[in-house]
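Incident log, support desk, overnight shift.

02:14 A customer reports that sequence design results differ from what the structure should imply. Their input is reproduced verbatim below. On-call engineer (initials T.W.) acknowledged and began investigating.
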């Protein structure tokens, strides 16, 4: 396989995949060689704007291209299982968006498919794991820098869907895997599992749908069946307790935050900064970024995507350790089980 092929990324999805992954991956030297979307004209327009040479509205055609080494699946969760299985069968490495699947049974099937292709990597896109600040936080926690972890609080509060006139789409449909629990809650659960290096033993929580109807593209109101708010409590095997809160219907945006309370200290990640307290004032201990970002790549998740892209490039070049922080399909299954437990409790 030539160098161009070795570094070729094919993206299925014209939302986050096009808007964030294309510039983030390019910034570290990866080649986005193909783009697939469900609407031909829209996909052609976006591909033209981005300068992606090949595009299609048939995602299976993307899998046949020899210049695609990695397939990034950035679609509604209800499509993940089928697309992952097909991509792996086509011999491609896979990066799959979160939440992993619609439910635990699908996530188990996806893990089995990945296990059947051990020469290919199969990852879930929990890109926060690659941010230097969070990697440093994990190292400090494992080293016992703040003592035994007692409890943690993680939250993501924003206004992205607070306008009731924002159109109905798959995000509003529980049957397609929409909702804040899957979209954001999965990230928060995985982040806690990653930072604590521990598994969730039990989970409880509530979900709510505050905006019950949204207009479709014709202006007709359609019922919203997916959640726009979640609050959950987790208990970890090692004894730590945690709360997660996520909302997309707040009146304003707040910085994402994660606070880990240990027996002898506290770590707080907020606004992209890592802070530490040994009982007094917080001190900024944020590591210096080792990568630079395009001007439009701002915020935790887009910047995490740049670091993930750098790891993908290194792995494709033969550095097997580059993807060590990544969330595997086993991680995806573990998170999916927690999501299902919260839904069952709610």
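02:41 Re-run completed on a clean worker. Output:
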């Amino acid at each position: 396989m030539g160098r161009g092929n070795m570094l070729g990324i094919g993206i299925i999805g014209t939302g986050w995949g096009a808007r964030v992954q294309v510039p983030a991956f390019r910034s570290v030297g990866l080649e986005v060689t193909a783009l697939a979307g469900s609407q031909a004209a829209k996909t052609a327009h976006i591909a033209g704007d981005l300068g992606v040479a090949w595009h299609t509205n048939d995602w299976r055609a993307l899998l046949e291209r020899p210049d695609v080494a990695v397939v990034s699946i950035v679609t509604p969760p209800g499509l993940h299982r089928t697309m992952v299985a097909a991509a792996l069968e086509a011999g491609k490495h896979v990066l799959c968006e979160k939440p992993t699947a619609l439910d635990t049974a699908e996530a188990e099937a996806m893990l089995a498919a990945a296990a059947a292709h051990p020469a290919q990597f199969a990852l879930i896109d929990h890109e926060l794991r690659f941010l230097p600040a969070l990697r440093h936080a994990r190292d400090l926690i494992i080293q016992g820098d703040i003592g035994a972890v007692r409890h943690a609080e993680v939250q993501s509060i924003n206004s992205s869907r607070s306008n009731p006139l924002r159109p109905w789409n798959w995000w509003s449909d529980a049957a397609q895997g929409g909702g804040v629990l899957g979209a954001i809650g999965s990230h928060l659960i995985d982040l806690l599992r990653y930072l604590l290096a521990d598994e969730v033993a039990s989970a409880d929580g509530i979900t709510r749908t505050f905006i019950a109807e949204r207009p479709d593209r014709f202006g007709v109101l359609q019922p919203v069946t997916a959640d726009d708010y979640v609050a959950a409590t987790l208990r970890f095997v090692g004894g730590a307790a945690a709360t997660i809160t996520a909302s997309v219907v707040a009146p304003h945006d707040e910085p994402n935050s994660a606070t880990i309370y240990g027996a002898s200290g506290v770590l707080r990640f907020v606004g992209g900064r890592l802070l530490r307290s040994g009982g007094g004032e917080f001190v900024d201990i944020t590591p210096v970024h080792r990568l630079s970002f395009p001007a439009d790549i701002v915020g935790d998740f887009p910047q995490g995507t740049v670091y993930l892209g750098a790891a993908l490039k290194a792995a494709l070049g033969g550095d097997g350790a580059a993807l060590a922080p990544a969330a595997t399909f086993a991680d995806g299954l573990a998170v999916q089980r927690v999501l299902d437990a919260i839904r069952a409790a709610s």
